[in-house]
Amino acid sequence: MRRGIKLPTRAPSGAAEKMVPPKQVVLLLRQEVGRSCKPVVKVGDAVKAGQQIADGAESGAADLHASISGEVKAFTEVLLSDGTEEKAIVIEGDGGGGVQPATKISKPLSAEPAELLERIRQAGIICASREAKSLCAVIDEAMSPRGYLNPTGEAIAKPIRHIAVRFCDTDPLVCSLRAVAGQIGKNTTALKLGIDALLKITSAEEVHFALDKTQELAAVEKLADENDIAVHRFDACQYPSFSDPLIAAAVLGKEPEVAYKRIHESGVLVLDIDTVLETAAALKSGTPVTHKTIAAVSSTGIKAVTAPIGTSLEAIAEIAAQGLSPDKVILGGPMQGMAHFTLDFPMSKSTTALTLLRREDHTKAQNDPCICCGLCSEVCPTRLTPGMLSRLCEFKEFAQAEEAHLFSCIECGCCAYVCPAGRSMVQFMVQGKSERLAARRSD
Amino acid sequence: MTEKRFIVSLSPHLRHGRTIRQMILTTMIALIPAVAWGVYQFGFRVLVVIIAAALGAIITEATVNRVGDNPYTIKDFHAALVGLVLALLLPPAVPLWIPFLGGVLAILVGKAPFGPLGSAPLAPALVGVLILALSWPAEIDHYTQPRTAAEAVKADDAAPAEPPLTAVYVDPSDAADYCTSGLFLGNQVGAIGTISPLLLLLGGLLLLWRKVIRWQAPVGFLIGVAVTAGIAHGIAPGSVAPATFHLFTGATMFGAFFLCSEWTSTPVTPWGMFLFGLFAGGVVILFRVCGMPFGRVPWAIVLMSLATPLFDRIASTPFGKAASHA
Ligand code: SF4
Ligand code: SF4
User: Fold this and answer.
1) Would you kindly state where each structural domain of chain B is located, as residue ranges?
2) What is the DSSP letter of B317?
3) ipTM of model
4) A69, A273, A47: which is closest to A176 by C-alpha?
5) Rounded to an integer, what distance in angstroms lies between the CA atom of residue A280 and that of residue A411?
6) Do B9 and A424 touch (CB under 8 A)?
7) Residue-by-residue DSSP string for B161-203
8) In A, which residues are within 8 Å of B10 by CB distance?
């Protein structure tokens, strides 16, 4: 049975728009979950685009680079959506195009895997998926021979057997990966280099491409053909077909376990196309991540915009929706993104999209009682009974919810999308999970 | 800080926008053809019966809201729908206090004690119908000949109006007298809203198309009725009418699309819904063959509703679980 929900995908209108460098960028020292870098510049220093401004060697964080050329204006604190404050470096642009010269690296793949990984870290590559970890941390976590503690308490270290490259965004209304994929054009050497490097680092055996069924990328398909790369076609409109578990299921030919597990434990590492291309750039010429192609989504249309990291959301909002006055601002797409309370916030490396919704574009959750209509169980991609789970969590029967496979929920939001009672389903699920984990920790 | 603050909430930020009220209104719209057919066949009095039932339900719900100091819930039209469904299950010539009382009881006994919409374990309309059937059987039994009777049903003018199921229960060989297409098109004696399988089917398709109901329970129910009747007819053709007869008489179609798929009282898991329908369909035939004068479909569905929590346990294996157990 086909599950999930049909959402309209609107293809981006044209190629990614290059943004005029803003007057000022604000670069958060913590671009990824849990790790931050130490500044290596002082106020008043002149920096070029691509020059390292903060170092993460100590904590293992990805390095941070200036995204425009100019002068370090100040160190500041930015209020994050979780209420904590985070240090950031403010750079005022000089309007010039000063770029840190690239260092050409011949035979990039001759280095040892550990060195390749270090170069990836120095290039500051972040996987802009929901978890927002650096590529380095993702690979490290997946491969670490120490294993790490997962919620059930056992140490696990499983090899990565497959690398899956996602060419299309999970959120159907977001088009950033599509735009990046569209820019590959005829030249696939970078893609090939990125893949080869990742294969070498992870010693994975197979590579898979996940493409939308309407995506026409002749060169990419040719590359796949020549290199024994399996191409999987999904329907991006059938949300959440591009989510990690569903891609991994197609790759493995069977469904990976999702409860208490991260997808890479099934041996599949799902990476976005932009991450792979950034890897190639880092290894070929030491080019760090300074720009990001993100989708600007609003009721007036969807655009892909390539902007320097640290650009204010306000500037992007102007491109996204001229004259529109939103009442909800979302970092990410409308299905999985995080609502943010202000537009006065810098875009970070883990921003995939900026979605602006007007009052009339979104229906507020109203949390009426569940009427057991069964719409949600029909769409749940993990075949749960979301209505019942939400009721169990609503009435604080968290243990029972866990028994009813609460942890198999991937928080896709399909159930909330269809619920006629307007229940905030994902909130119930997330709350239930965190209560269970907290209870377990205190045991 | 004076800059604009935006709304913050957890994902997803888009919703389909379908509301319970819309779904209830759609159900009412889906019933319009059947109601119109009832009016055509039995005259405008049936509208009064419907209004009496709806009024009974609405007034009771409003009173309960008032007494309980809760927000008024009649705005979602559920009470009105309960009244409508209840009225459609009654014979056309019932005294008017019957539907009104039915509406009152449906809400008072079937819905209000359990809490807001979504809490009642049994469909309120069915509770109302069954209380009426148990308490005032003689008052309920007021069937009239439909307008088209002379053409299609038994051309026996003097006979009192008798629903086909009752006739066949008395004398099984009577089943042969009914023309299947006539039954399907709605030329039969019966309750106000249940006599036209064709129009009910159309209404059901509308509900399926608008995703107000899931297909599993109705399909399971129809299969249950057809297969059970087919088997029983095969074993004892002399005492059981054939499957087509059972599919197109009584409240079979009505039950499939408007009762079996009532949200709260029926399961939500795909297999749960299908088996619910299947068993309910089987029980309907059991009741029809082994005897019960009125309300066989309501009884069967209410009986199955009691087992809804059990059916709900027939859940699919969650994503990735099959692999880990294999
Ligand atoms: S229960 Fe979880 S996995 Fe299922 S639809 Fe809801 S959010 Fe998605
Ligand atoms: S869609 Fe909403 S009302 Fe319907 S069963 Fe699921 S949670 Fe309950």
Assistant:
1) 20-135, 153-311
2) P
3) 0.89
4) A273
5) 32
6) yes
7) P--HHHHHHH-GGGGGGS-HHHHHHT-S---TTTS-HHHHHHH
8) 339, 424, 426-427, 430
Q: Give the 3-state secondary structure percentages of chain A, helix then strand then coil, rounded to 5.
A: 30, 25, 45
Task: Examine residue A386 and say whether the peptide bond preceding it is cis (omega within 30 degrees of 0).
Answer: no
Buried/exposed A126-151: b ≥16 CB within 10 Å, e otherwise: bbbbbebbbbbbbbbebbeeeeeeee
- Tell me the pLDDT of chain A (443 aa) as tens digits: 468 898 876 666 567 888 888 889 999 998 888 888 999 999 999 999 899 999 988 888 899 999 999 999 999 999 887 778 889 999 998 877 778 777 777 788 888 888 898 999 999 998 887 678 888 888 887 776 544 455 665 665 678 899 999 999 888 888 889 889 888 888 889 999 999 999 999 889 999 999 998 888 889 999 999 999 999 999 888 989 999 999 999 999 989 988 888 888 888 999 999 999 999 999 988 899 999 999 888 887 888 889 999 999 988 888 777 677 788 889 988 898 888 888 889 999 989 899 988 887 777 778 889 999 999 999 999 999 999 999 999 999 999 999 999 999 999 999 999 999 999 999 999 999 999 999 988 87
Distance CA A431, CA B111 (A): 30
Q: What is the CA(A172)–ligand 2 centre distance, in A?
A: 23
Residue of A251, A354, A359, A383 to mutate for B, most B C-beta atoms under 10 A: A383
Residue list, ligand 2 pocket, CB within 6 Å: A 370-376, 386-387, 390, 415, 418-421, 423; B 268
By C-alpha distance, which of A395, A375, A359 is closest to B20? A375
Fold of A113-146+157-284: Rossmann fold (3.40.50)
Query: What are the extents of the domains in chain A?
Result: 113-146+157-284, 375-442
Tell me how crowded residue A354 is: count the other CB atoms within 10 A of its CB. 31
**Phi/psi of residue A49, nearest 5 degrees:** -60, 130
| pTM of structure | 0.90
Q: Name A350's Cβ contacts closer than 8 Å, sequence gap at least 6.
A: A31, A32, A126, A127, A128, A132
DSSP secondary structure, A116-164, as one string? HHHHHHHTT-EE-STT-EEHHHHHHHHH-TT-EE-TTS-EE-----EEE
Tokens of A176: 């950033």
